[in-house]
Amino acid sequence: MPSLRQTLDSAALELASQLGLDRHEARIETAALAGHGFGVNRAWLIAHDRDELSPERLATLQALIERRRQGEPVAYIVGQREFYGREFKVGPGVLIPRPETEHLVEAALKRAPQNARVLDIGTGSGCIAITLKLERPDLAVTAVDLSAPALDIARANAAALDAEVAFIASNLFAALDDRQFDMIVSNPPYIPAADAHLTQGDLRFEPQNALASGPDGLDAIRLIVAQAKCHLAPGGWLLFEHGYDQGETVQGLLKTAGYAEVFLEQDLAGQPRVSGGRLL
Ligand code: GLN
Q1: Per residue in 104-156, pLDDT tens?
Q2: 220 lines ligand 1 (CB under 6 A)
């Protein structure tokens, strides 16, 4: 029988060539899959590096590697993804949280006044709403999504992480009547419907309505910019994530709609990623 290390090394090579990952990424992925399959952590994998793998463990690992080889995202295979230092349960019904979105969280934390009423639109796994509540327990956080399976996952995450967030099934603001908020945040779908990225990598497996939004990708953003005005208290902030090449257009949308103090922030990769403004 091969050792754990030999098995992980050859699996990583296979994934690297099949999926076009670099070897380092591929090794991290194989370790994550082994940890999940064996129910062990990284320290265990390191300690048992030279052990022979039992036939059962080898078969378990091979099945997981095969799913990954077919393109299934690691986050869906292991059922979780880290966001802002916490583990969130994820599945094919929700977008996999991205590190870029942590920047939206920081932009919101920086601007949210004490005890602000915050609304997260299209909460998916709940990662934004739950993180805001845990980082700032003074905030009153409401989160909406139109997808019932997404809300199930978001509620499970809030329960597991002990975050008090009110989840509501709603297509954008539809179920919110005339409720007012001091801050509205969203990581809306913003990819153009015909963009080739939608048929590549992890994105192929994620909910398309969480990713794509009309011919230029801005359908959801246009609706949010327009409709948020009826739900923002005086001085309230709207902040949302967008594509790296949508910064200028989105700034124009916000200004034309009458938002003040319009800002644009870059993500850690230096790409324009979060825009917003406030209603005075
Ligand atoms: N709010 C969730 C996230 O940022 C889901 C966003 C979405 O589905 N577009 O990951």
Answers
A1: 999 999 999 999 999 999 999 999 999 999 999 999 999 999 999 999 999 99
A2: no
Give the tokens for residue 277.
């403004």
Q: What is the mean pLDDT of each run of 10 residues along the chain (280 residues)?
A: 92 94 94 97 94 94 96 97 98 96 97 98 98 98 98 98 98 97 98 96 95 97 98 98 97 98 93 96
Cα(152) to ligand 1 centroid in Å equals: 14
Closest residue by Cα to atom 5, ligand 1, is: 124
Give me ligand 1 centre to Cα 168, in Å: 15
Whole-number Å distance, alpha carbon 2 to ligand 1 midpoint, is: 41
Question: Angle, nearest 10°, between helix axes 219-228 and 247-256?
Answer: 30
What's the confidence (pLDDT) of residue 168?
A: 98
How far is the C-alpha of 166 from the C-alpha of 179, rounded, in Å? 13
Confirm if 45 and 31 have CB atoms less than 8 A apart. Answer: yes
Q: What is the pLDDT of residue 247?
A: 96
The three-point CA angle 97-103-108 to 5° equals: 110
Cβ of 93 closer than 6 Å to ligand 1, yes or no, is no
Cα(10) to centroid of ligand 1, in Å?
A: 34
Distance between CA atoms of residues 214 and 39, nearest Å: 42
pLDDT at 267: 87
- The residue whose CA has the least distance to atom 4 of ligand 1 is 187
